Amino acid sequence: MSTSSALTATIAGIGFWTDGLPDWDAARAFAREGTRPESAPARPSPQLLAPNERRRAPGSVAVALEVAMAACRDAGIAPETLPSVFASTHGDLGITDYMCDTLAADPTAISPTKFHNSVHNAAAGYWTIGANCTEATTALSAYDATFAQGLMEAMMQLATGSPAVLLVAYDTASAGLLGTVTHSEGLLGAALVLVRDGDGPRISASLRDGADLESPGPLGTHAQHNAMAQMLPLFDALASGGVRALLRAGPHRSLALEIAHAPQPEPTDG
Question: For the whole model, what pTM was predicted?
């Protein structure tokens, strides 16, 4: 049973990166045909950062900026004009494990750079600086409902006045002792530029009681062990032309998405 009025938005641009599938074209081909690029980079390389910063950036920042910029390019919208929502289940688990281990063993040895990158809004901060963006940005976490809550936040911003909003979702691999209680594998990130109207896929979202999810699709299976796999039902549907997706939105709650894909142009004779 639906318990809320539907929020609506048009997807103007998409960015995607995960291990072995370094962009949305590769992810879409994998979801539709099962094909993968013959070679794929082991790590994102966001051109928004200067070369030295690019090399030093943690995986969480690298994947978030890579997909954010790709979504903006796909939408044809200048990144500095967009308010943004950055959603991550855990932030950077490798850095968090390092912080915990070092604080327990030798607190004075904490790396200032690692400490700087440990905050949950680190990726959002790098984005606003690199893109020269002074629009509002939000960083949030809601455990396994993080993507659904981030999507609702972005759509609420559209509904209350913003003409376009950037949503970025990402998570990293767990490490060390922390990985024994909070498991996550690989890098996974995706971004959407959402607008009120346009020619892209149109989504309608409503909260519902119950949290029973459907079996994962190809992308959901490929990256199922990353903490942000929770977002992949939507991206599987977008890649394959599906018209529905169901996301976990909290205890005993789900976010039901209806998707109206843009009509494809009729082929013309040569």
Answer: 0.93
